[in-house]
Amino acid sequence: MRITQGAFSFLPDLTDEQITRQVQYCIDNGWAVNLEFTDDPHPRNTYWDMWGHPMFDVADAAGVLYELNECRKVYGDSHYIRLSAFDASHGWESVKLSFIVNRPKAEEAGFWLQRSEGQGRNIRYTTHPYATRKPEGERYT
Amino acid sequence: MSSAEAATPEVEEETAETAIDLRAEYESSGVKEVLEELDRDLIGLAPVKKRIRETAALLLVERARKRLGLAHQTPTLHMSFTGNPGTGKTTVAMKMADLLHRLGYVRKGHLVTVTRDDLVGQYIGHTAPKTKEILKKAMGGVLFIDEAYYLYRPENERDYGQEAIEILLQVMENQRDDLVVILAGYADRMDRFFESNPGFRSRIAHHIDFPDYSDDELLHIAEHMLDEQNYSLTPAAEAALKDYIEARRRQPHFANARSIRNALDRARLRQANRLFENAEGPLDAAALSAIDETDIRASRVFTGGLNGAKGGEEGGSA
Q: Testing the interface with B: which of A22, A60, A65 to mutate, by most B Cβ within 10 A?
């Protein structure tokens, strides 16, 4: 099942050229671009690992693409990589744009729905990614 | 982004366009303004201006060829600026960044000035991230490496400078569209640096040599600097400054325009002191902005100068 998180995720994956244009838009607005990666695709997993520091003083998207390619070399085959743009201006101080820029090469396994019956036959639902049955680092290999 | 936007209409034009007016191109691209600014703001430096004019012409023609669909390749734009200190290398680099930006060879046109300390780390594993950080910052613009030969220290084979050089070379080769590198430094030491790093020599297309300024040019520069700060020289002071330049040139650590700037700063200091101690009654604007002969003659350059003052410590080495 294809993971859909962040912006553009119902579109076909963005090409590098499209990513460059998006990143340049972020930079021109003065947002700091971050690269994050994970192999736990649960939608509530907000704490992805950071690749390097947020790129505060990069003037051109080529610098970000350079880091993205470095990150892909290490995690490209087995991890999701997303790019997020943080607006530090007063009153916002939050992420303005976030989208997936890399998916693992292996099949995206999707989620199973767990129903647990509680008191009074109440049903509680939980989702688990199939991927997380395996330990970290082995999930998409 | 603008370059990418501009690319779309060009595709259609390619078939329609059969001739390009270079003259009009020269004026509309803003190259003319940069070159005129260069002529106006920089005194002397005739060979440098000539080389920049030639480079600009080459880039303009190359761009026109691209528009007409002729065979073209992105020219190698990395440069080396050699010359003594204070001959205007950084200033010209700034103008060069502007020029390349207007011609569309770099996307942003900002200048990032670094020295060895900004690129080379202090311990194992520190250099690569540091160098890459700088390279990322400079992408879309021009990276200016001052005194580049310090990157290479042959006497220490475990020096981390080598690592920075390798990363630099790799990016200079693979990301020619994203970044232009300008190396700068003294002519003789740069030559030795290129000899021991042939990779650099072959990746740099333009070597520009900055000559020393003549005495007249330095005087011109001094007047230009003072003018900008709303100061003026009295006729006697001008004669004194002429003598000063002549004397200063013969002394060690002469740094062309930079020495002049420092001399003027000290002259202003003495002028302020003179006014403060001798002034009786109110001073008008002319008095506050006039630099007099005594302000310049008091320099230690006239009394044996740096040789006399520092003779005890390092007279021999200089």
A: A60
B308 — phi, psi (to 5°)?
A: -65, -45
Report how many domains make up chain A: 1
Q: What is the pLDDT of residues B159-214, one digit of tens each?
A: 899 899 999 999 998 888 889 999 999 988 999 999 888 888 888 888 899 999 99
Chain A contact for B107, CB < 8 A?
yes
B1, part of any domain: no
Distance from CA of A34 to the nearest CA of B (A): 13
Q: What does the pLDDT read at residue A19?
A: 96
**Are B192 and B183 spatial neighbours (Cβ–Cβ below 8 Å)?**
no
Conformational region of residue B69, where left means phi above 0, alpha means psi within -120 to 50, and beta covers everything else: left
Question: What is d(CA B89, CA B48) in angstroms, rounded to the nearest whole number?
Answer: 10
B134 and B201 in a single domain? The answer is yes
Count the domains in chain B. 2
Residue keyed to tokens 């994956």: A13
Give domain status of residue A81, yes or no.
yes
> Could you say which of B210, B229, B248 is where a domain stops?
B210
Task: Read off the pLDDT of residues B84-114 as tens digits, 9 standing for 90 and up.
Answer: 888 889 889 998 898 889 888 888 889 999 9
* Weakly modelled stretches of chain B, pLDDT under 50: 1-14, 308-318
H or E segment and range at residue B7 = helix B2-16
The CATH number covering residue A52 comes to 3.30.190.10
Instruction: Quote the CA–CA distance of B185 and A128 in Å, as a whole number.
Output: 61
Residue B174 lies in a domain: yes
Best CA proximity match to B82, nearest among B200, B169, B175: B200
- DSSP assignment of B156-217, as one string? -TT-THHHHHHHHHHHHHHTTTT-EEEEEE-HHHHHHHHHH-HHHHHH--EEEEEPPPPHHH
Domain that holds residue B239: 215-305
Asked if B136 lies within 8 A of A21 by C-beta distance, the reply is no
